[in-house]
Design brief:
The protein is of the alpha/beta class and 277 residues long. The chain contains five helices and eleven strands; from the N terminus they run E-E-E-E-H-E-E-E-H-E-E-H-E-H-E-H. Strands 1, 2, 3, 4, 5, 6, 7, 8, 9, 10 and 11 form an eleven-stranded mixed sheet that branches.
């Protein structure tokens, strides 16, 4: 199996222009990931790209096989993951084009499998134990430093910290829901940041979210509310800039033995009962 040290979960626009990209298919005990993995090199670092929604964006947020995605990345050697995503701003100052690197997460999804440790036997005969992984701080502190530094190095002043609330989707929030999210003090709202962060922690992976605001959410603006077309338009206008920052962040992530963060110790003392790839 080809090896990579860093994983990027995002759209095909993040890897499509790279030279010498190797496409590989990975099977997992949890079914198929969203797409093939695309392996390439950035600044001397081996990176595995995975289109979160599949090529052509055919998978809605609630149908993404998050467990297969994270397992597939780990199986090719990935130990650090960057997860760029499009979000709505919950505060007027977080308008379109804002880049926020969250430090907290709120789960408001309803029907997503969010653990590997559910007691169901795997095809290899191993049986996951029921374990409880700490998630007080869901994002990698070293990854956050790299992402923030990369953005500042490109004259894009990011928001350092904040709470990403993840909703089930695929619909957008009602105005009342959006106003409630804002009243709770949360920063941005998206549909894909959970359970990615949780599953990454359960596999001992470092996970960092980079949230690009594409719109003001319904409760933070006075128009008719966000539209899918608006989200796509703003994301397309910023994708080149985001890709550059993302690649700079890849280069800035700690290498190999340089990893020394809470993520690497997440499974210490826990008997998971399964053989991790």
């Amino acid at each position: 199996m080809a090896n990579a040290e860093i994983g990027v979960i995002g759209g095909s626009g993040f890897y499509s222009f790279l030279e010498d990209v190797t496409e590989i298919q990975v099977d997992t005990p949890y079914g198929s990931p969203s797409d093939s993995l695309f392996l390439g090199e950035i600044a001397g670092r081996r990176v595995a790209f995975l289109p979160r929604h599949g090529r052509g964006h055919h998978l809605p947020p609630h149908r993404i096989n998050y467990r297969a995605n994270l397992w597939a990345l780990r199986s090719v050697g990935v130990r650090q993951v960057l997860g760029p995503c499009a979000v709505g701003g919950l505060r007027p100052e977080y308008g379109p084009g804002t880049l926020l690197v969250p430090d907290q997460l709120v789960d408001r999804t309803k029907a997503r499998t969010q653990t590997y440790y559910d007691g169901y036997p795997l095809p290899d005969g191993s049986i996951p134990n029921v374990v409880h992984v700490a998630l007080a701080d869901p994002y990698c502190p070293e990854g956050r430093k790299a992402a923030l530094s990369a953005a500042r190095g490109r004259d894009w002043e990011p928001v350092d910290g904040g709470t990403l609330v993840v909703i089930e989707g695929p619909r957008f929030s009602t105005r009342a829901e959006s106003q409630w999210h804002a009243a709770m003090g949360w920063s941005v709202v998206g549909m894909t940041g959970h359970p990615e962060a949780v599953l990454a922690r359960e596999l001992g992976l470092c996970y960092t979210s980079m949230a690009l605001v594409t719109d003001l959410d319904a409760g933070a603006e006075t128009g008719e509310g966000v539209s899918h077309e608006e989200v796509l338009r703003v994301f397309a206008a910023n994708v080149d800039r985001l890709r550059t920052v993302l690649f700079d962040a890849v280069a800035a992530l700690p290498a190999g033995e340089g990893r020394d963060c809470l993520c690497t110790r997440a499974l210490d003392g826990l008997d998971t009962g399964i053989r991790l790839p």
